[in-house]
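Notes from the 1:1 (GR / supervisor)

We went over the backlog. Supervisor wanted to see one worked example end to end before approving the batch request, so GR pasted a single chain during the call. The sequence is below; no edits were made to it. Supervisor asked that the structure be written out right there so they could see what the output format looks like.
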Amino acid sequence: MRSARVAWRHSLRFRLALVYTLVALALISMIGLGVMTLLLRQMDSQFQTRLNERADTLAEAFLGGGQNLGKSPGGAGTYTMIIDEKGQVLAATPSLRQYEKAPFPFAGQAEVQLNGSPARTATRKLGDFGTLWMALPEDALVDARQSATRALLLALLVTPVLMLIAGWWVGRRALADLGAAADLADRIDPTRSVATLPLPAREDEVHRLLAALNRLLVRIEAVQAREKQLLGQIVHELGAPLTVLKASLTRASERTHDPEVMRAALVADELTFTAQDLMQLARGHLEMKVAWHFIPAMALRGRLDRLVPGTGFAGDWGGMLLCDPDRLTQALRNLLANARRAAGPDGTVTLSLTETSDHVTFTVRDSGPGLPAELGERIFEPFISGSGSSGLGLSVARQIARLHGGALTAGNAAEGGAEFVLTLPGAALGDDEEEAAPAEAAPSA
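Structure output shown during the call:
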C-alpha cells in the first residue's frame, strides 16, 4: 500500500495529530498555569489571613490577661517574641529562648528561616510593653506549591504523549477512507480505464473531496474518449492518401532512380509509420490484439532491411520466432529508425538477435551521442523525444513488447551510443501450450 511507503512524519494524520497535540499542550499549559497560580494565590491569602488572625489573637490575649507566651492562644507551631522599645528580646517561646535578653535578629524581615523551615512574620504593638513579633511556619504552603508544580509538569509531560497517540488513532480512523481512495487511485491506469473512487458513508470533507475527484475523473475520461476519436479520424483520413503516395513514389523511384524521388519515398514511408503509431496511440491497450504466428527470423530480418536500409545485422537469425510479425516489425522498425536518426547518415546501426530456451533478445545499438541522462524512463512516454522525432515510436515499441509478454529497456552502451534491448518470451512451450500453439500457428506456417 502507498500509505505504508509514505514516511510517517510526512503523513497527514501525523501532522494533524501533532498540530492537535501542540495546540492542546499550549492550552493546557496556559490553563494549568493559570489555575495553579490562582490556587496558590488563594492559599497564600488564606495563610496570610490565618497569620494575621493569630497575631491579633495573641496581642489581645497578652494585653488582656498577660498569659504566658508558651501557652498563648496562638497554638502549637507558632513562634512569638516580645521586643522592647530598644530592640531587645524580653521574652520568647521555648523554641526561641536563645534570643532572649539579646538584640532582636529579624528586624524588617517578612520571611525568616526558623529551625530549618521557612516562616512568615507579623508584628503587633503592645502599648507600653513594646512589640509582639510572631512567625508562622510555611511548610504546608511550600509543600502545596511543590505538589502543584510537580502535578503541572507531570501533566505537561504525559498529556502530549497520550494526546499524540489518541490523535494518531483518531486521525487514522477519520482518514481511513481517504487512504483507501489514494491506494485505489494509485492503481488507476488512465490508458485502460478511469474508474471512480468509492465514496465513504459519512458526508464529510473527505466525501466532498472524493466526489470532486470522481467528477474530475469522469471529465478526464470524456476528454480522452474525444481525443482518441478525433485522433482516429485524423489518422484514418491520412492513411489512404499516404498509402497511395507511398506506392506511387516507390514505383517512380524504381523506374527513374532519381535521388529526390527516392528521398520523397522514404519521407512517405516515415509518415506512414507515424500514422500507424498515432493509430496505435488512439486505440490504446484495450483494442490491441496480438495475432500469434510462428515465422522464420530471416523473414523478419528481410522486412527490417527493406524498411530501414543500412542496418547491420548480427547474431543468429536462423531460428523461428513466435510473435505477431506486423507488430514486432513495427516495434523494431521504430527502434531502428530512431537509431538511424541519432547516428546520422555516416553512423552505424546494428540489430543483434540472441535466443535461449527462455528468451529472445533483440539489441539495437547506434554510434550516436547516446540518450540524454535527464530523460531516464521518460524517453518511453508519448511525445517525449531525445532525437527530434515525434516521440511516439518508443512508446509504441514498449507497448508492443509488453503485449508479447516481454519488455523494452533503454540505456547507453559501454563503447558509446544508445542501446535498446527488446526481450520476448522464448518459443519453448509447456505441455499444454505445445498442443495449442501448432493449431494457432498452422495458418501462417
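Supervisor's comment: Residues 1-6, 67-74, 429-445 have pLDDT under 50 and may be disordered.
Batch request approved.
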